[in-house]
Amino acid sequence: MQENISNKIDAKLIDKIISVAYRDGSMTDKIIVAWKAAGDDNVKNLLEEYRATFNKVSKLKQVDLPEYVTEKVEEKIGFQKSEGSFSGNITFSFFNIFSGKAVPVAAAGIVILAFVSFLIFREPVPAHKYTKAEIELAEYQLKQSLAIVGKVFTKAEKNFSQDILNKQLNRRLNKGYYLVNNILTGG
Amino acid sequence: MLSPAKFDFLIKKYKNKIFNYAIYMMKDQMDAEDVTQEVLIRTWQNIDKFNFNAAKAWMMRTTHNLCIDYLRRNNIYTKKETDVDEDYNESFADHSIDGNPHKAAELLITEDEIKDAINNLPERLKSPFVLYELQGFKYKEIGKILDVPLNTVKVNILRARKQLQKELKKYAREYFK
Fold first, then answer.
1. CB of B140 within 8 A of CB of B75?
2. CB-based burial of residue B133 (10 Å sphere; 0-12 exposed, 13-18 middle, 19+ buried)?
3. Does A63 contact B13 at a Cβ distance shorter than 8 Å?
4. CB contact under 8 A, B101 and A66
5. Cβ distance B119 to B81 under 8 Å?
6. Which residues contact B46 (CB under 8 A, 6 or more apart)?
7. Digit-coded pLDDT (tens) for A96-132
8. Can you tell me the distance from the alpha carbon of A176 to that of B55, in angstroms, rounded to the nearest whole number?
């Protein structure tokens, strides 16, 4: 039993299908059309039909202008052709390069190449060589610094153990013991 | 001093593009040759006047204008506003074939049939279509050649694609899968 399905495809979707088939759809359009085509045979068929047309159109061959037409033109204007000559090929290449996108691309390429070459081939900065006297002086200065730090810590320890612990804390502890003792002995 | 070299370069690079565009516009090779000849002569006459980098657009625009002038002179050119099926979307959307939407219609179309179908497009759709799909021009370039806004170029190319598909249905032969 065949279903007679009337499948109306939304006009906007048709436009997307056509753009995707002709390979100038956006990434979003490609995703939407692929998703719709996976779930709807009509969308899939429409896409395939437009794709087939695009493939045919893109393969249409160009017809070459017959030589006698250009010869007629050159005769009328009194133009001397330089085809086949070395200088003619050079000038053609010159204009071909400078009339297209080749110039900015080539310029960017040269800049990048120059930068990479600089990074690879630059001379390394020579490491500084210290003399024996400089090393010994540095060691002496290090020891001095450590000694100063050590003195500071020693003094701090003395202060803590002799002054703070002995005098301040012990006094209070002794007073505390005295009070407790009094309470316990009833005196 | 560089004028002959410039001209030589321009001929070599663009002569076939001009010729092929003229063929589609004129629908006749002899007329297309005449138009191409005229374009090349005018290019030589103006070689020192236009910006070399804009030569491509200038030459194609001259080709287009000469084709239109020729067609008008011979009363062939009409704007053919009514040729575009504005309801095409609706009529095409329902493509259940013989009540079976799963039956695929495979289009077997020859190169000549495609060319005929393109030639049958209305002029205002054919021009941007040929320039974009066959000559490889970008939307912006086509806008300059045809002297129309960018959006108009895009819309007309889309319409041309739809109209072409409709034209090709006449040549379509079906295979049953």
1. no
2. buried
3. no
4. no
5. no
6. B58
7. 665 665 666 777 888 888 888 888 887 777 777 788 8
8. 107
pLDDT tens, residue by residue, B107-160: 567 888 899 999 999 999 999 999 999 999 999 999 999 999 999 999 999 999
Interface-testing mutation among A14, A65, A82, A103, with chain B (most B C-beta atoms within 10 A): A65
Q: Is B97 helix (H, G, I), strand (E, B) or coil?
A: strand
| Cα separation values, B146 from A51, B38, B92, B124, B128, Å | 27, 18, 29, 9, 8
CA dist B95 and B77 (Å) reads 34
pTM of the model: 0.65
Q: How far is B76 from chain A (nearest CA, A)?
A: 24
Give chain B positions within 8 Å (CB) of A45: 95, 101, 104-105
Please give the ipTM for the structure prediction: 0.78
The residues pairing with B177 across neighbouring beta strands, listed in sequence order, are: none
d(CA B172, CA B166): 10
**Yes or no, beta carbons of A96 and B99 under 8 Å apart:** no
Question: B100 in helix, strand or coil?
Answer: strand
Shortest CA gap B93–chain A (Å) = 5
- B73 HSE (CA, 13 A, CB side): 8
Shortest distance, CA A76 to any CA of chain B (angstroms):
8
> What pairs with residue B97 in β-bridges?
B100
Q: How is residue A124 written in tokens?
A: 């390394």
Question: Per the CB < 8 Å rule, is B40 touching A70?
Answer: yes
